[in-house]
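2024-03-11 09:14:02 INFO worker-7 job=invfold-0412 stage=load source=structure_tokens
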């Protein structure tokens, strides 16, 4: 043992202490080369290997890329739908666009989680996604009931049908981006958000149905389809909750 206690040998030279670090095993006996000593000290200082750091950064970047791309796609779709809603006044479209804005907004906590490279932040982001879906369902439901009480026929029906198709395309593309990245990165929050966007794409097709049915003279179909969309969003909320919660156990 040296005077300062930096290194001492135990059990025939294959266990030793570095400074104040714990005693630990080495697969060989005999002295270390300078390179081995440096690598060994380096791993103590950092507590992990460079391989793991690189993987973590790579995962973070890939997650951020997926979140950012899906945010851009959904954001553009929701803005286009908002402009058409101002023209048409359709409550079914309002339900869809509220949901699409909410869905785009879920990218923010997911992005923060990937930026922090934190599994806990990712789980919390998953719960935030579920909460956002639920809130959007509540808002859409209230609007649909209000329209049933105070009927109003939507106008600009071709534009309304176009808004439904825009919503379908935006959600379908965002779903593909999120689901593929979620599976690759083993992220239940991203997978839940991807499944959610895929279901939303079908919800957007209900807006197309609204335009067709209202054109046939059944204006009451608008709030009724709004309520149906609300029910679908509630089902998506439950499924997403199961996905996120299932990963906790």
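2024-03-11 09:14:09 INFO worker-7 stage=emit residues=249
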């Amino acid at each position: 043992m040296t005077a300062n206690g930096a290194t001492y040998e135990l059990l025939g030279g294959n266990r030793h202490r570095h400074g104040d670090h714990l005693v630990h095993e080495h697969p060989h006996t005999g002295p270390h080369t300078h390179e081995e000593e440096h690598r060994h000290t380096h791993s103590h200082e950092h507590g992990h290997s460079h391989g793991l750091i690189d993987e973590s950064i790579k995962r973070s970047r890939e997650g951020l890329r997926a979140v950012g791309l899906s945010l851009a796609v959904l954001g553009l779709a929701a803005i286009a739908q908002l402009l058409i809603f101002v023209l048409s006044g359709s409550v079914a479209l309002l339900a869809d666009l509220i949901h699409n804005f909410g869905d785009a907004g879920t990218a923010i906590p997911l992005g923060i989680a990937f930026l922090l490279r934190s599994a806990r932040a990712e789980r919390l982001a998953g719960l935030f996604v579920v909460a956002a879906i639920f809130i959007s369902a509540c808002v859409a439901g209230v609007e649909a009931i209000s329209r049933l009480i105070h009927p109003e026929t939507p106008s600009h029906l071709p534009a309304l049908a176009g808004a439904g198709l825009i919503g379908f395309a935006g959600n379908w593309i965002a779903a593909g981006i999120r689901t593929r990245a979620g599976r690759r990165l083993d992220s239940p929050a991203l997978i839940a958000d991807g499944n959610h966007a895929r279901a939303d794409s079908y919800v957007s097709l209900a807006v197309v149905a609204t335009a067709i049915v209202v054109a046939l003279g059944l204006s009451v179909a608008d709030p009724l389809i709004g309520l149906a969309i609300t029910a679908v969003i509630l089902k998506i909320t439950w499924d997403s909750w199961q996905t996120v919660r299932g990963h906790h156990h």
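2024-03-11 09:14:09 INFO worker-7 stage=report msg="Residues 50-88 form the longest helix (39 residues)."
2024-03-11 09:14:10 INFO worker-7 job finished
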